[in-house]
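A student in our group prepared the protein record below, which I am reviewing. I have pasted the whole thing underneath without changing anything:
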Amino acid sequence: MAAGVLPLRMMLIPGGSFMMGSPEGELERLDSESPQHEVTVSQFFMAKYPVTQAQWRAVVEEMPKVNQDLKPEPSEFKGVGEASRDENRNPVEQVSWHDAVEFCDRLTIHTNRQYRLPTEAEWEYACRAETTTPFHFGETLSTEIANYNGASENNGAYGPGERGEYRQQTTPVDHFKGANAYGLHDMHGNVWEWCQDHWHNSYKDAPTDGRAWLTDDEKAERILRGGSWADYPRDCRSAYRTYFTPANRDDTLGFRVVCSAPRILP
């Protein structure tokens, strides 16, 4: 990637098992987060940060099209300060699921390594990082450590937390210093992150091996995780899930990439 672009740093996520979904006693949980069920995930790599605008532009301008054209600068929020567009560390947004897949395909061909969107199970497993609380930070969230709408009188606080600020835009991906135990940043808030999976109203009959849960409908709504700068803390919980059509673009929608870890042979 171009000089000045934040490196696409990938963190090794160890394999293991976890309880996916929210427990019945979790505050403001939804039926779509149940039934809680054990899932076993193989190790993989996940990007430390959501894809930035500078990273997006470097891939779009330097790597040839695979299936569709991409705009080099699709984002609503261009960042602040003196950083050039080649150094813009705000997450890319206004990207559809199809746009994110095209980005991954270009990276795959350029690097000869399989980049892709995470499965929903991989995303929640990586977000939780062996925690069982609503957020990997604990029982609540603060706008001092994450970017979300914390100013609402009725919805700005979660559980024992207090109301905070509402920035009304994205922040640079390395703005907050708190990472989870796997070294991942911005898993709560800033931008929603696309996953591979098709939307299902609950986890009834969901796979338990970490693979993407798909249907035969290629136009099906795709999963989004993590919440955004415009959402309340309850929507930023590790278990919260929502969806959009794969063609949808919005200034709250971004993504991060993953790739499979090399297999170790005996």
